């Protein structure tokens, strides 16, 4: 389910958002369909956890449908949506911090080789071996991202994976543009240090890629 | 070199969000500064590496936005607090029953104890001696009331005076104001009327003058025309008369000529008859 050009055009279509705003349930459904993957992946990168990402996405879109009429400027929809998502991510993160119990699954399967995660991965047309490598690499890098502190992680994900402009990030997080850039800088710096510590670089992951 | 790219500028450049002069400045800086260039290269390769984190595929589940978020009653913190309080009370009561605890409220006394209650001597509390008789109280009340009345009255009088004074002052002030206003307005209106009348007069004068001028010239023209016409008519008349006289004279001349000829003929005939010597009676 990769986006086609038409989908991307629709994601930013004012008319669709206008219809959704007016309470057209079809249009709302379409907006959810279009943006779900982005928000889910944002949540996933934030938590590295499918359930949390699903939780955050669900809440985000329910809130979106409820509050869409209060959105003033349709062109701000994207930042607005990410703002909701970020707030829910923070809320969930806070809850998780308070509740220190670990899921039994995670404890049990931590070092297990038969992690089922990669089985659900997407690129079914690649060779299984390549898929596995790709998925492992992705997971390793994702794990490194999790080591970066929350404030910087938000910015890194929004910039690097969601392709938002610094101006938009600043708006979403209610900070100045310069602060956003600083967080990005220190986020990347932290990421580099984590990767160096784990000895992950182009050479060590160069196999088969 | 004075310029050094800040981390913010570096970030903006790395993600292609710089334009124009700013971009040129940082590009120049990078060309001249190999350390910064290396730093940027590191960041770029880090970005390449991180690009390997793939998006997860996910299918949007249907959202049901029926009638608001359904919250189970037992899950709300409020209900939880109440329930826990109730539970602890129940526990307390149970323990109290087992241990034989006893709680009581008698008179003004709360008693908590275990086992049978122990009687205690209660201290005698005598009511305080009444020091004032009702008469005294009445008197006090009366004096207080009268004092109060007195002060009220004086206050009232004072305020009345103040009010009167202020009303009078206001009235004076207002009437003076009104007078002034009326005067002003009347003066203004007289002036206005005068001006208006003067204006009217001059205007009338102008109109009448104009009218007279206009009518006199018109009359002149008319009379001139009349005179001209009349003289023309007179001349015509004279000409006609002259012609009539001339023709009559001519006809008179002709008549006299005719008469002359006739008389001449008659004369000649007479002469001829007389010359031949014949009697006139023979002529017939």
Detailed description of the structure:
The complex is a heterodimer of chains A (209) and B (284). Chain A is globular and about 55 Å long. Chain A folds into 2 domains: 1-98, RNA polymerase sigma factor, region 2, helix turn helix motif (Rna Polymerase Sigma Factor, Chain: A), CATH 1.10.1740.10; 128-209, Orthogonal Bundle (Arc Repressor Mutant, subunit A). Chain A starts with a helix and ends in a 12-residue tail after the last helix. Chain A has 209 residues and is mainly α. Chain A has helices at 5-11, 14-21, 25-47, 50-67, 77-98, 104-109, 128-147, 150-161, 166-173, 177-197. The longest helix of chain A has 23 residues, at 25-47. In chain A, 69% of the residues lie in helices and 0% in strands. With 284 residues, chain B is mainly alpha-helical. Chain B has a domain at 7-46. In chain B, 72% of the residues lie in helices and 4% in strands. Chain B has helices at residues 7-14, 20-32, 34-50, 77-99, 134-276, and strands spanning 101-106, 109-114. A two-stranded antiparallel ribbon of chain B has the order 1-2. In chain B, a hairpin with a 2-residue loop joins strand 1 (101-106) and strand 2. Chain B is elongated. Chain B starts with 6 loop residues before the first helix and ends in an 8-residue tail after the last helix. The chains are: A mainly alpha (209), B mainly alpha (284). At the A-B interface, helix 3, helix 4, helix 7, helix 8 and helix 10 of A face helix 1 and helix 3 of B.
Helix and strand composition category of chain A: mainly alpha
Rg calc of chain B: 74 Å
Order of helices and strands of chain A: HHHHHHHHHH
For the termini of chain B, the CA-CA separation is 180 Å
Number of strands of chain B: 2
Q: State the order of secondary-structure elements of chain B, H for helix, E for strand.
A: HHHHEEH
